[in-house]
Structure to design on (187 residues):
């Protein structure tokens, strides 16, 4: 099913059900930047076994889960949030959702318990596509582009169900895909 929407910041990329790439199997990716030069986004539903306090020692109380944002620059930490009024920084990528911001301010807020898990999500690495690469993958039916996104979906704590929810939110045309097994030989 060829996606008819063009990608842009604030949209989702939803992987087709049988994508074999282990980096993106059943992935839901929030796009944070899209231009003629390339695309950047973060996988919303691939939790790691790490917590923020494991990666940033001066955040001793930070039990926030870390997600695998993608296979690019996995030695970097990124975040999206919906608490601009607390951080006073970040690039708005959709209504009320921001990418990045002042990390020093964020650290103070985290240590003071002033930000909750449903306001910020942390990622190791990111997903990136070069010029025309994402367009080619969409034309090959690797991805479905969705503009139907509720902010709560970005901060969902039900990672295993997120792909299914994102597919169902596309409407009746796609809903049947949500029931496909992850391994087609089990069908």
């Amino acid at each position: 099913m060829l996606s008819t929407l063009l990608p842009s910041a604030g949209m989702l990329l939803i992987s087709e059900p049988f994508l074999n790439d282990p980096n993106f199997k059943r992935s839901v990716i929030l796009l944070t930047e899209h231009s003629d030069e390339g695309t950047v986004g973060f996988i919303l539903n691939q939790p790691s076994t790490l917590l923020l306090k494991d990666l940033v020692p001066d955040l001793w109380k930070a039990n926030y889960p870390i997600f695998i944002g993608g296979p690019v620059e996995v030695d970097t930490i990124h975040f999206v949030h919906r608490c601009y009024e607390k951080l006073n920084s970040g690039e708005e990528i959709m209504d009320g959702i921001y990418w990045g911001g002042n990390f020093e301010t964020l650290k103070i807020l985290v240590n003071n318990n002033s930000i909750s898990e449903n306001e910020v999500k942390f990622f190791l690495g990111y997903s990136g596509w070069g010029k025309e690469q994402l367009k080619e993958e969409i034309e090959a039916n690797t991805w479905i582009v969705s503009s139907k996104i509720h902010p709560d979906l970005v901060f969902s704590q039900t990672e295993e169900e997120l792909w299914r929810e994102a597919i169902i939110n596309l409407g009746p045309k796609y809903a049947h895909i949500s029931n496909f097994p992850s391994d087609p030989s089990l069908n």
About this structure: The chain has a mean pLDDT of 90. The helical segments are 52-55, 84-87, 103-111, 133-139, 151-154, 159-168, 172-175. Residues 16 and 142 are 5 Å apart (CA to CA).
